[in-house]
Design brief:
Elements: H1 3-17, H2 26-32, E1 37-38, H3 44-52, H4 73-85, H5 92-96, H6 98-113, E2 123-134, E3 137-146, E4 157-164, H7 170-175, E5 180-182, E6 189-195, E7 202-209, E8 214-220, E9 228-229, E10 235-239, E11 246-252, E12 255-261, H8 273-280, E13 284-285, H9 289-302, E14 312-319, E15 332-341, E16 345-353, E17 364-371, E18 382-385, E19 391-395, E20 402-407, E21 410-416, E22 421-425, E23 432-437, E24 443-447
Parallel strand pairs: 13-14
Antiparallel strand pairs: 1-17, 2-3, 3-4, 4-5, 6-7, 7-10, 8-9, 8-11, 11-12, 14-15, 15-16, 16-17, 18-19, 19-22, 20-21, 20-23, 23-24
Helix pairs in contact: 1-2, 1-3
Keywords: Membrane, Transmembrane, Transmembrane helix
Transmembrane segments: 41-60
Length: 464
Amino acid sequence: MTVDERVHAALVDLAEEVRPAPDPYGRLRARRSRVRRRRTALGGAALALIAAVATTLPLLPDRGGSAVNDTDPGRSIHEWSERLRLSPIRGAFGAANPDYVEELARLVLERQRTGVLRVKEPVTEVNVLYLDDVDHARVAFVAFHRATPDPRTSWENASAWLIAKPGASAAELADLRPYAIGDGLGPVETISNFENEDGSAKADVALAIAPTGCVVESAPLPAVDKWTPEPTVSYVVRTRATERAEWWRVVCDGVVKEVRPATVLYPRATLSEKQLDAALRGAGGTVDRAMARKAVQSAGDLNFNMTIGPSRVVWGGEIAGSQPDASGSFDGHAVITVTPWIRDSWCVNIEIEYAAKQPDSTVGRGVQQVAPADPSGPNAALPIRLGEGASVLVIVPAGATSVRALRAGAVIDTAEVTGQAAVVDARDAPDLTFEALDRDGTVLTSATIPVERPLDLVAGVVPW
């Protein structure tokens, strides 16, 4: 996976993590809706920071009590985050070496007070929440308790992941620049794939940690219905050897609080020529093979814990004449893939590459939508809304020469087909239909933009 694609994945996850969704499925739903994605050529250091930024949900400034209150979402999030901060140390090395933990907390606090960290406001306490030797590194996760809540956000806690070579002393671990600092501390914190600046320490792991009294459970794809508590109880660690396609959920005091796809390790396995040939079989339009490789790889990588089968390329070609939305144009060379997902869902991805030297320096963007059934096929029409604007790209079967958009049976726009696709303009509405016609005006097929249905994996969840 290229740096560009890893940044792409990191930015998507980051954008979803900082959104205070009212339900624990919000991050995934954001990805499954018509989210516009951008890939920007950021350097490795920026990628490291983005990929590891802690969950930053807004916390209320109230500091009273320790009992969890689920009637006030903001207060409840605050209290669960405090519960995580005050939880016992996790990790075998940390549990076996309390003196090391105490020294590390003291040294990190001293370093913070010198002003060299991004967390510069007064901090009263540093809590070491995780400490262990994993993969080829010694890893720690610490929380900073602010003397007063951040006036901009009301967050009472910040956090940081630390990494040093295996066997590093507390002084070495505290002295290194933190791998990443989060402005807040969420009820559940995750990280994957991180290393220090000189490359002497690398943790090729996916890790999640929950508050004390909570149990992290996992369930494998494709069914995602057999939940097994992790032997580590309130946290989970996956390496290359133990990673699998799965979901995680967090159960606290007998209540399911969060259900989410497991954190993914990058890079994923590279697509073989044979796999790419299979993915391209039956594709319409004019598909660029190199771009198709990136699109198929991306569809699998970004949705690793949703996918239950190989992606295939439906169409490739030029998008022209589309109306831009607030984020910009969709015109460019595109590849569309369709991927089978869990719970009988199908994910449609468009990857678009622009000509060089775009004003906003964007090198690519994407659109994603989810259908309750396979929306593609040799005789099917596939309409895909391009962002939040009016334009809809419609992929049509061979023999179609025009496309028309209808609302409540009335034609609102038509377009000629080029390369088995056309762009029509039709604002989002529940009664839209798109028809593909042949040269004689006969309707060959029609379709609607599929309406997403929520997955039942989160039924009964009581959000943080």
